[in-house]
């Protein structure tokens, strides 16, 4: 029996590309176009201005970004909001449903990092680095640990909290953090976390509370390569 199709909505229609009932096919129709999934990634830690998204996604044009945001807004993944501290400034943020893509994105990233062709030295946006921390966090290593870190990447500010074997990361500041890191670009922090480079070999990165920062970085390891 063929189920009736709902044609009353302007939202993207399931089956428009693949004519396939599979949820994976529908996901590709929602966020499978170039840049779409990376836009979702950039919004995982809160709303961002259009200019913030363009700065984080090197190579995307204003036209394509507008098209992708418009499509995801129509699909119910993204919505527009007003900046809490700057009335009149428009932000794009994930809806509750859009935010739930985080688990799928993290697992996809973990799977891809198992490839021998994955290059962790390529450029990273600040949000991409934070999402990688959430993805590669080893809860077993963090058992019993309680740490708070202030991590500043360029103009982006994040607070990372480890407690009860869990990691939480949010945009913001914490003046009482156990350690503080500041770097002009995310790859410097990634080198310390994943390549385990000593802080002394990364002079562009400033570190306060080195012992706590080193302990924090011990919670993160890239997966073993397969293939």
Would you write up a description of this structure?
With 227 residues, this protein is α+β, with helices and mostly antiparallel strands. The chain has nine helices and seven strands; from the N terminus they run ααααββαααββββαβα. Strands 5-4-3-6-7 form a five-stranded mixed beta sheet, covered by helices on one side. A two-stranded antiparallel sheet has the order 1-2. Strand 4 and strand 5 form a beta hairpin. The N terminus is likely disordered.
Secondary structure layout plus pairing:
Layout: H1 23-31, H2 36-42, H3 50-56, H4 62-75, E1 78-82, E2 90-94, H5 96-99, H6 102-113, H7 126-136, E3 147-153, E4 156-163, E5 166-171, E6 179-183, H8 186-194, E7 206-208, H9 210-217
Parallel strand pairs: 3-6
Antiparallel strand pairs: 1-2, 3-4, 4-5, 6-7
Helix pairs in contact: 6-7
Short note summarizing the structure:
The chain is α+β, with helices and mostly antiparallel strands and 227 residues long.
């Amino acid at each position: 029996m063929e189920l009736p199709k709902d044609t009353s909505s302007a939202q993207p229609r399931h089956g428009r590309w693949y004519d396939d009932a599979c949820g994976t096919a529908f996901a590709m129709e929602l966020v499978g176009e170039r840049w779409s999934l990376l836009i979702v990634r950039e919004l995982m830690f809160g709303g961002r201005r259009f200019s913030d998204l363009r700065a984080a996604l090197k190579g995307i044009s204003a036209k394509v970004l507008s098209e992708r945001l418009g499509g995801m807004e129509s699909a119910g993944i993204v919505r527009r909001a007003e900046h809490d501290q700057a009335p009149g400034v428009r932000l794009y943020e994930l809806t509750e449903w859009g935010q739930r893509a985080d688990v799928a994105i993290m697992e996809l990233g973990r799977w891809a990092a198992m490839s021998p062709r994955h290059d962790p030295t390529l450029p990273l946006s600040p949000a991409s680095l934070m999402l990688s921390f959430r993805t590669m966090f080893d809860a077993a290593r963090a058992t019993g640990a309680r740490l708070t870190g202030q991590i500043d990447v360029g103009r982006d500010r994040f607070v990372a909290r480890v407690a009860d074997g869990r990691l939480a990361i949010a945009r913001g500041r914490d003046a009482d953090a156990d350690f503080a890191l500041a770097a002009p670009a995310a790859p410097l922090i990634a080198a310390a976390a994943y390549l385990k480079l000593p802080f002394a070999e990364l002079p562009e990165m400033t570190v306060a509370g080195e012992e706590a920062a080193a302990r924090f970085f011990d919670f993160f390891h890239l997966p073993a390569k397969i293939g």
